[in-house]
Amino acid sequence: MTQPPPYPGTPEPSDEPGGATPPPIPPTQQPPTYGAPAAQPPAYGNPYGAPQQPAYGAPQQPYAQPYGGAYPGGPGQDQPSKGMAIAALVLSFLACTFVAGVVAIVLAIVVLVRGKDGRNHGKGLAIAALVISVLVMLATVGVIVLAADFVEEQSIDNLETGQCIDAENLTDASSDSIGLIDKVSCTGDHDGQVVATSTLTAAQASAASDGIDCTPLVEQSLMATLDPEEIEIYGLTQDTSPETGDAVACVAVRADGEQLTEKLG
């Protein structure tokens, strides 16, 4: 009887007498069974578009901000403070209005206080705004004081008896007004000399348009030394239409329109 072929790995029957056939050695690897599903390889990629969960311990991807965004604490958060510093610098050049100067100083101080966090909030611009604001405001005050002194100096109300002056049209008898007054020394050439000062009475104020009579205002001792054909006396007021109580300055000038060369009296 024909024996079927031994299974691979099965030992041949022993020819020795009394020898028993040992049990077959189980194969170390079983052949695949036909028809059994093969192991599926791992799928590459993500076929359904579902988000893949990162493995535990794997490094996480940093969150990407969209264009124009900024990370917390990044440079983008400094921009409002820098804008404030720029605004303070611009307003500092307008500090002559004082309101703009005060606003510029306040904004600059706010920027400097915010700079204590160690970030650049526009410290240099804020310091420049402070310096410029202070300088512009001081310069404005100086100009106002000088202008006020100049106007005060030019005022007829501030003339004093015995002063010598130069003024445009002062020696022109046909002129209704004079130019700026310049107080000068009486030892040199000058247009006129103040021989009396007073305030207008109601009668003098009402007749001011026809000229102010200074004869009763000038000291009689001085009037005695003046030749009326050589010296004329004009009553000058600050306003062309003076009122009662306004100041009047009586100024002596030469009748021929030339300048005086010495002090009268």
TrEMBL record:
Keyword Transcription regulation applies: no
Residue ranges, compositional bias (Low complexity): 31-69
Compositionally biased residues, Pro residues: 1-11, 20-30
Alphabetical UniProt keywords: Membrane, Transmembrane, Transmembrane helix
Name this protein carries in UniProt: DUF4190 domain-containing protein
Organism name: Nocardioides lianchengensis
Chain segments carrying region Disordered: 1-78
Organism phylogeny: Bacteria, Bacillati, Actinomycetota, Actinomycetes, Propionibacteriales
Chain segments annotated as transmembrane: 85-113, 125-148
